[in-house]
């Protein structure tokens, strides 16, 4: 019987996930459809029970539901527990399992560029939900994670969580400083650049060995990446993270290896 998957969130109309997953199903001849549904916060419970009642095999969860969905689920995987957030749900024997592929998807997306993680230094700009998932995954790989955020208290809380989970981290204000000199990985996780706006921090003095990643997925290069390129850094945009979090969700749902190249093509076609 045909399987059904979906992504739920708000806003959702610009999600690339349906194009990416449906291209993968088509490529492998899998009898499945990936939908997208706009779900407002006050309808989340009905949406979860509705998806179950309709026989959905699983779904992705995006903003603003990644944390608020947790009380409606039966169990969490270690990755979801680590992040304190869920981006993937699977129905298994009638039970709703919450999982998170954002952190590991991010790691997969940079592995080709950053060979060593242990004892290297990552600087993350921003301390929101996206930053948290990435920070905890990097800390688990043995990186020192330095968080810079406009609201210092949020950076401090995230570093406390990193320490509680056995990692090492530090924090500072969202402005240029001596952190620029010795950084292996610099990750931009704020929404600055989503709408083509300028990036407020100058990166003068950033080490040339730095891999700079902006998790924003945009047809247009973000001002952050332009600035990092100008300083001689290697750069990656958010397409890789989106692709790999999707591929890991696919593998969690369906087993086997996700058809990465077909999914990448589906994603790129949608971006045109
Ligand atoms: P997400 O869950 O997608 O990461 P979020 O929780 O809204 O989104 O987090 C957005 C992050 O971007 C926060 O760290 C936010 O900083 P504050 O904690 O000070 O709010 C940061 N951010 C958003 N707009 C910003 C701006 N104009 N300048 C600097 N940082 C900004």
Automatic annotation (TrEMBL):
Pathway note: Metabolic intermediate biosynthesis; chorismate biosynthesis; chorismate from D-erythrose 4-phosphate and phosphoenolpyruvate: step 4/7
Keywords: Amino-acid biosynthesis, Aromatic amino acid biosynthesis, NADP, Oxidoreductase
Enzyme Commission numbers on file: 1.1.1.25
Superkingdom: Bacteria
Residue ranges annotated for the SDH C-terminal domain, each copy included: 238-265
Location of the Quinate/shikimate 5-dehydrogenase/glutamyl-tRNA reductase domain: 114-165
Keyword match Transport: no
Functional summary from the UniProt entry: Involved in the biosynthesis of the chorismate, which leads to the biosynthesis of aromatic amino acids. Catalyzes the reversible NADPH linked reduction of 3-dehydroshikimate (DHSA) to yield shikimate (SA).
Family named by the database record: Belongs to the shikimate dehydrogenase family.
Protein's name in the database: Shikimate dehydrogenase (NADP(+))
Gene encoding the protein: aroE
């Amino acid at each position: 019987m045909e399987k059904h998957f979906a992504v739920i969130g708000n806003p959702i109309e610009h999600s690339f996930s349906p194009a990416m997953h449906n291209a993968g199903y088509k490529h492998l001849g899998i009898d499945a459809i990936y939908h997208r549904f706009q779900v407002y916060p006050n309808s989340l419970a009905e949406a979860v029970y509705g998806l179950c009642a309709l026989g959905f095999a699983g779904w992705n969860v995006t903003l603003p539901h990644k944390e608020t969905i947790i009380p409606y689920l039966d169990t969490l995987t270690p990755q979801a527990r680590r992040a304190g957030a869920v981006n993937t749900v699977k129905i298994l024997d009638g039970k709703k399992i919450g999982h998170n592929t954002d952190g590991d998807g991010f790691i997969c997306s940079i592995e080709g560029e950053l060979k060593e993680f242990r004892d290297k230094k990552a600087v993350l700009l921003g301390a929101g939900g996206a930053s948290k998932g990435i920070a905890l995954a990097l800390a688990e790989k043995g990186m020192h994670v330095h968080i810079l955020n406009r609201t210092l208290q949020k950076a401090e809380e995230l570093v406390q969580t990193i320490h509680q989970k056995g990692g090492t981290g530090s924090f500072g204000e969202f402005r240029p400083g001596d952190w620029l000199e010795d950084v292996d990985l610099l990750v931009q996780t704020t929404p600055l650049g989503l709408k083509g706006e300028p990036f407020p921090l100058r990166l003068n003095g950033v080490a040339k060995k730095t891999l700079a990643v902006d998790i924003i997925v945009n047809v247009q290069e973000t001002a952050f990446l332009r600035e990092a390129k100008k300083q001689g850094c290697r750069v990656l945009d958010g397409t890789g993270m989106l692709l790999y979090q999707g591929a890991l969700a696919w593998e969690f749902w369906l087993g086997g290896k996700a058809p990465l190249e077909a999914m990448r093509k589906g994603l790129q076609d949608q971006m045109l």
